[in-house]
Amino acid sequence: MTTYEAVIGLETHIQLNTNTKIFCSCKADSWGAEANSNVCPVCTGLPGVLPVFNAAVAEKGVILAHAMHADVQNVSIFDRKNYFYPDLPKGYQISQFFKPIALGGYLDVPIPAEGDNEAYSRKVGINRLHLEEDAGKSKHAYGKMQVDFNRCGVPLVEMVTEPDIRTAKEASQYLTRLRQLLRWLGISEADMEKGHLRCDANVSIREKGSNVLNTKTEIKNVNSIAAVEEAIVKEIARQIKLAEKGEEVRPWTLEWDDDAGELRKMRSKETAADYRYFQEPDLLEVKLSDKEIANMLKDFPEMPLERCQRFEAEYELPTYDAEVLTADRVLSEYFETAIKAYGGDAKKVSNWVMNDISRMMNDEGISAEQLKLTPQGLADMLKMLDEKKINQSTAKSVLRKVQESGKTPEQVVKEEGLGLVSDDSAIRTVCEKLIADNPKEVESYRAGKDSLIGWFVGQVMREMRGKADPGVAREVLQELLQG
Ligand code: ADP
Ligand code: ZN
Ligand code: MG
Question: Domains in the chain, please, with CATH?
Answer without folding.
Answer: 4-295 (no CATH), 304-415 (no CATH), 424-482 (1.10.10.410)
